[in-house]
Amino acid sequence: MSQRRKIYEGKAKVLFEGPEPGTLVQYFKDDATAFNNVKKGTIAGKGVLNNRISEYLMMRLTEAGIPTHFIRRLNMREQLVREVEIVPVEVVVRNIAAGSICKRFNIEEGTPLPRSIVEYYYKNDELGDPLISEEHITAFGWATPPEIDDMLSMSLRINDFLSGLFLGIGLKLIDFKLEYGRLFDENEQVRLVLADEISPDGCRLWDVATNEKMDKDRFRRDLGGVEEAYQEVARRLGILPESEPQDVKGPTTIQ
Ligand code: TMP
To answer: I need a surface site. Which of 100, 115, 191, 226 has the fewest CB within 10 A?
Structure first.
């Protein structure tokens, strides 16, 4: 592995100390997990594709006025991001019923929801990321009421923007998960920015014409064609990496 100091290792990414204070290097692995780490595997080239896909989507969101932690992509598997304090709340936005909401309310997968539904989950692997309400978030101090307002309004703007972007390339944005971080500026002022990644690992994307799944559900449900689905999303976004993802094995040190 790299010489740089490892700050944190998650299931799909590693964070290293960045080249300047206040920055981190986010390294994308090929590792995949599902059902809170019960199912483990690798998806060849996933890290390369997610690095690219997340770069593209974060840049487009920045253009649309959404503040993010993203600074720039460094190489095939790494991007430079601002160091933030991650809010331990995962925000899920759903447009069409799929996954856990189907089980919870016995809804058939694919049912359009009456309106977009925003849910909060406590980011805690040991507990399996339980569903929580605003009451839990404020009572346990995970985020303040104004921060919840910011996360809600940004998530809905992101949903509108990304739903349109994906529709333009023949994909329906079924649902997705976002994470936010606190960014402290020189005067110790704090503001929330979009953090983590946006990729087919944390989104459900269905082909408009066929409803074919083009996301991590192919891995979760053993549907096959996982690598191809991620590649197809990248291809439709017009951002397939220069060389084959399989060519890239380990992390490379940045200058
Ligand atoms: P769910 O249907 O399993 O609750 O997932 C909703 C969306 O959130 C789906 O696109 C996958 C994403 N997600 C994550 O990225 N990480 C998680 O830990 C969970 C539970 C969901």
So the answer is: 115
Q: Which domain holds residue 103?
A: 85-207
Of 114, 122, 221, 112, whose CA–CA distance to 174 is shortest? 112
Task: State if residue 176 touches ligand 1 by the CB under 6 angstroms criterion.
Answer: yes
175: Cβ below 6 Å to ligand 1? yes
Question: Is residue 92 within 6 Å of ligand 1 at its C-beta?
Answer: yes
d(CA 27, CA 17): 11
- Per the structure, how many domains does the chain have? 2
pTM of the model: 0.93
- Between the CA of 187 and the centroid of ligand 1 the distance, in Å, is 36
Ligand 1 closest atom vs CA 177: 8
169 lies in the same domain as 62? no
